[in-house]
Amino acid sequence: MNFPKRKNIKEDLRQKLIIVGSKNPVKISCTEAAFHQAFQGSFLVEGLNINSGVSDQPYGDEETYQGAFNRANNAKLVFPEADYWVGIEGGVDLVGSEMHAFAWVVVIDKMGNVGKARTSTFFLPKAIVELVEAGVELGEADDRVFQRSNSKQEDGAVGILTNGALERKEYYQQAVLLALIPFLQRDLYFN
């Protein structure tokens, strides 16, 4: 008779440390929520100021993904004692003449395994697009157009444009959860 392998109880009870490659409270909060959704156990989620290695306002899928990967990977280099490292990077791109916003999420574990996912996209209004095209970062453009301050550390463009129906935390949290799929299904992804 084959019995399932018994997990190390001490390993299951040990609090896992997750480092987010940003001090942005929304990115830290959505990461913590997604890990609690995906896994049982206790997690300590901390943010570090990590350079993305890309433009302040990443443009296109490739640069935005690279920023998320760099944040996770550089966080691992700075704090190698953690269990997971998470990078979240928001970007913009054009579809025809319209600009849309999105973010990439990259999660790396101690073994070097990588999970990744992208958020859904939403299109930006002309007033914001004009500022971004003039070189203004999306968060700053939101603040100018909507007469706010530091909105990217709160509800962000998605929260503002949906009148709070979709908060930035929830928007990112879903992508973090999707990036955790390979860690939930290790046998399928890391064999």
Structure overview:
Residues 21-184 form the Non-canonical purine NTP phosphatase/PRRC1 domain. It catalyses: XTP + H2O = XDP + phosphate + H(+); ITP + H2O = IDP + phosphate + H(+). Pfam families: NTPase_I-T. This is Probable inosine/xanthosine triphosphatase. Keywords: Hydrolase, Magnesium, Manganese, Metal-binding, Nucleotide metabolism, Nucleotide-binding. This protein is α/β, with parallel strands linked by helices. The protein has a domain at 9-92 and 101-118 and 167-189: Maf protein (Alpha-Beta Complex). 42% of the residues lie in helices and 21% in strands. The protein contains nine helices and six strands. It has helices spanning 9-13, 25-38, 61-78, 126-133, 138-146, 156-161, 168-179, 181-184, 186-189, and strands spanning 16-20, 43-47, 84-95, 98-109, 114-118, 122-123. Strands 1, 2, 3, 4, 5 and 6 form a six-stranded mixed sheet that branches. Helix 2 (25-38) crosses helix 7 and helix 4 (126-133) crosses helix 5. It is globular, with a radius of gyration of 18 Å. The two termini are 24 Å apart.
Instruction: Give a short account of the largest sheet.
Output: 6 strands, mixed
Instruction: Please bin the fraction of helical residues.
Output: 40-55%
Q: What is the CATH first-level class name of the domain at 9-92 and 101-118 and 167-189? A: Alpha Beta
What global shape is seen?
A: globular
Q: What amount of the residues lies in strands?
A: 15-25%
> SSE string, helix = H, strand = E?
HEHEHEEEEHHHHHH
Which residue ranges are poorly predicted, with pLDDT under 50 across at least 5 consecutive positions?
A: 3-11
**End-to-end separation:** 24 Å
By DSSP (H or I, 4+ residues per run), the number of helices equals: 9
Mean residue pLDDT: 92
What is the CA-atom radius of gyration, in angstroms?
18 Å
CATH topology assignment of the domain at 9-92 and 101-118 and 167-189: Maf protein
CATH level-two architecture of the domain at 9-92 and 101-118 and 167-189: Alpha-Beta Complex
E-strand count:
6
Cofactor: Mg(2+); Mn(2+)
Subunit structure: Homodimer.
Protein name: Probable inosine/xanthosine triphosphatase
Binding site for Mg(2+): 81
